[in-house]
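Collaboration report, partner site 2.

Our partner group contributed sequences for two proteins of shared interest, and the home lab folded both. The records are reproduced in the order in which they were received, starting with the first partner submission.
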Amino acid sequence: MHALAPLSAVGASTSFLAWAVRGRSASVFGRSVWRGPRDRRALALTFDDGPSESTPDILEILAEHNVPATFFQCGANVDRLPEIAREVAARGHEIGNHSYRPGTIELELRRAQETIERHTGVRPAWFRAPYGARWFGLGGAQREMQLTGVMWSAIGYDWSRRANEVVARMAASVSNGAILCLHDGRELREKPDVRTTVETVQRLVPLLLDRGYKFETIGRLLCPKI
């Protein structure tokens, strides 16, 4: 019986570490938020891995409905498509830091911060870790760059599912203060196929507007009085 105790401790430690790295409410490796206040019928629509060649298609849909969003951009994609990154900012959307390359965090975080600011004039206040995975040292880097981590209330899996499945999943997960995560890029691929994401935005935005939700940037959702 006593031999089982160490194994149980290992299992508990492994479970805790998995939650600390990927848990949406975890702040072990750096301050993180995953939803806004529940007292307002508002939510935030966010996009990861851009910009891509198809980001302007999403911007047009958002403009049609006068909806703001937050784009967590990869620094390498900003370097590749600076004019599209600038268009995101020029249209009044918020830009967050998504590291320079997906899969890395600490060393690439500063590089992404500097790249985004150089090309767009925007210095991000928000950071979303690639794949939502956080690790040792991230908290110190976030504090140094005054970045707050942002997870999500619902993620669409728009890189692997059909649009009707993504829309249904997101619509079923929405509540006051929700943060929704889609992807206007596919990691660092050139000309990625994001037709599922575009179709999802076309259908999801008017559906949620009809339900009475107001779309806000992460900054406005989390800090409504600013």
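Second partner submission, folded after the first:
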Amino acid sequence: MNRDVLIALLLQKGIYSPNLVEKFDMFCDDVLETNRSFNLTAITDRDEFYAKHFVDSLAGYDFVKDAKTVCDIGSGAGFPGIPLALTCPKTQFSLVDSLRKRVDFINTCTKKLNLDNCSAFHARAEEFCASHREAFDVCTARAVSSLATLAELCAPLVKVGGSFVAYKGRTLAEELKASERAFDILGLKTKTIAEYNISEDEKHFLLVCEKVKHSPPQYPRGGNKPKTQPL
């Protein structure tokens, strides 16, 4: 059972407590219950949920645990932001999503979970960056957009010396090659690529990039250009 895998992972990280597991259970319940009336996830099997949402989200734990501030772009139903906020109580998390219903759901959940270190914001990444430029130690993204697109949306939010952490699948090598120009422009340098499995046949990668110089002020571009015309 993947709930046991989650518990084993929390024990391995030295952060296990019955109360923490209970909060993960509560969050799962809330997502699946809300999902009946509003589409938050295509994963409705609880066992699969623990693996593909919780265990996957916590792949980034080691890379955010010492940060003071983390921004999660395109949080959706709160992944990886809420699992990371649950396990990193001293870190302040800002979860950004463009859909109001998802943001309202996240804020409702964080209140129920007493997550004082987590807030959600209704905005496009480009809009959010206008008032939070280079304000975060780490920016995470667990999304379906291409790496070049994610880099343009996330890098300008990260302080020089901070990190951009992207959750990616099997296409990472091709996406990295296609993102070389974007990384050079935006001031990103690949630091770590961590490979992990959330099931026997599902290989995932965590890409950690260091922000080595300031991102030019014209990025991220508006008008959906990071997606339609990636760097």
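Feedback sent to the partner group on the second submission included the following. The mean pLDDT is 96. The chain is about 45% helix and 25% strand.
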